[in-house]
């Protein structure tokens, strides 16, 4: 690994590379901030209250909230009361999207959130731990005239988490409870133009179904999807980034195979980092525009997870290989203690994701949070993953601390060393400090932008321009980690400047004491050539 | 005879050009109940000025929600004023649905205007979410072919649209240069502001494994009762103004300025008025007061709904009533209650 490009590059060239990367970074922020719209949209839907007057309940009858063939609607439930319509004959109908619009595959996903408007009544309060049972059907069609085709049907239970903030007196009857948002539906691809949701809240006194849920006044839904414009910008970015990372990866691997020695662990890890970055980059999402692949959401999660796990492992191994103590590492098994938590944590999150988004492939209304057992299970997975993350960061911080301690130890010893050893250690220290600095900068940028995007309302007005901060965050950070991987592969690739020096031989005997020490550091594998080089160099001088 | 004719003509004119909108009558009586079944005929709505008529014809599909909005405004008014001497009574046999009460530029007028215009904005926003109006929200201001804007970057919030409708329609008649118009404009805007100010942000995280890496937020509309409570506070702290007359090129123009310059100036969200309210104790056809005779009062309360204040010191009658009441009920979430009947005895106090 010694003799990476970064060590042999002149400062001027390094600055130039830095500036070019910085320009790309600014560009990736600008693409998101100025061209793309906000990443996602939320659309409010208020369910129309339809009357299912047909007593014989036709098996497949869909209720449209508006337009031609709209259902028989009632405005309020007082009207239903007067007409003696029962709860079981009421169907809440929601058409997605709103009139005169259509959905598009560019929306990538659609998730729907459910909210009940429940009025407080002195004698009809929500009971503690009330569960609401929802009978829901989802249908689609691709033009405005054809019949609806059923896509999914399910009977779901959700826990009503409502509280009433004012005093429970007659005075306050008619005020609404404040209810938590309920996860309702998640579809991983938007292949159709029109969707229709029919929701029933069946009542059965005998089975205690939907009893004690208060007086439901309205059902409101919020539909969230990715904006088409953002998807296009995102795809364009991915399509551009894939070849860039791929090319540098091939170039990097060619350099390594050109060397006489087999690649060291760190080089392999950097290569693996490149592979996982390419794996995220490859724009397979283009297919989602043409095909109805609902698993794309899950697949995206997996790809992202693999990259994060790889990045975290890379940091640990990079620190470990620069420890400069007298232990020999250079084997993956040496790092099981540090990489173990990463693998275990990622595995937990993977299981959790499979339980949520995996099941949603077959039942879009499924939510692991809906039941108590599911909630506990999900929380368990997340907590375990959280503990793993903490453990990992403790290890990492400890390792970084160790490296710095060793560095300062070596620093004081540096002037006393021979030139070869000094160069070697200075190279190590510089390499480490450089990556440390860049990594910290990237992490800080990510955190800062994350906070900015969380805190503010999503866009800034700058004269005539509207800067979409959230989009800028996504494209900018995504671009940044790509550039990070790119820069690592470029700068930490073995330098070819000294290939020619290998034949030179020097007074090995004089330096033999040092050699033993040097070979125990990370340069072990390419040690001999390196020592030949350095000793050769010193002897030449 | 000519004089009588003139007088009648003037009366007719004042009736149409009353100080508060006649079209509010859409929200009461048979006009309201027929809204769901019959299409609205703009020409048959009483008291529309030409601009409103044009608006109605262009956007006839949102007119039911405009009426609905006035309705929820009135209901909220009646709820907020339920125990007071003036309890926001509407009369069915008159197009001026509040009678002559609101002809004066009182606090009550200020409140009703504000709550009605807030109601319109609220109901239109609701209707947009229900999909019962097709012209809502996006694409109107964005460039490009319709539908493309939605696919590229989604829509703007419907609330702005609701406010826009309320402003275009409810404020259309308030364009005269007199003090009352200025007051109505201000109070209408205050009502709409209250909606915008009470929107609250809700968020959903949906990133990797449901983390907040990706978060979508939206503004949710509050319960209308919250708006009502807030407007009631504004009613209690409404600012009294005085009318100033200026001579301008188009004639006399009346403007309003605060009566007490040492108090804080009313902001955009405050209610303003410039005539004092009658005390509403005795029936008075001129002020539109119904009096508080026979109103039910609360014996134990020391507030405005207590028998002392509500009955204006005239004292009260007490009678005992036996009522059949529903008890031990099982409720369904809608439309069905199965109960037993219980007899209860009540003391009912009514004002003399």
Automatic annotation (TrEMBL), chain A:
It comes from the Eukaryota. GO terms for molecular function: Wnt-protein binding. Residues 227-496 form the Wntless-like transmembrane domain. One of its GO terms (cellular component) is Golgi membrane. InterPro entries: WLS-like_TM, WLS_GOLD, Wntless. The chain crosses the membrane at residues 233-253, 265-284, 304-323, 335-352, 377-401, 428-452, 472-493. Residues 49-226 form the Wntless GOLD domain. GO terms for biological process: intracellular protein transport; Wnt protein secretion; Wnt signaling pathway. Keywords: Developmental protein, Golgi apparatus, Membrane, Transmembrane, Transmembrane helix, Wnt signaling pathway. It is found in: Golgi apparatus membrane. It is a multi-pass membrane protein. Belongs to the wntless family. This is Protein wntless homolog isoform X1. It comes from Chanos chanos.
Automatic annotation (TrEMBL), chain B:
It is found in: Secreted, Extracellular space, Extracellular matrix. InterPro entries: Wnt, Wnt3, Wnt_C, Wnt_CS. GO terms for cellular component: extracellular space. CDD domains: Wnt_Wnt3_Wnt3a. One of its GO terms (molecular function) is cytokine activity. GO terms for biological process: animal organ development; canonical Wnt signaling pathway; cell fate commitment; neuron differentiation; positive regulation of macromolecule biosynthetic process; regulation of gene expression. SMART domains: WNT1. Residues 1-18 form the signal peptide. Keywords: Developmental protein, Disulfide bond, Extracellular matrix, Glycoprotein, Lipoprotein, Secreted, Signal, Wnt signaling pathway. It comes from the Eukaryota. PROSITE patterns: WNT1. Ligand for members of the frizzled family of seven transmembrane receptors. Belongs to the Wnt family. This is Protein Wnt. It comes from Chanos chanos.
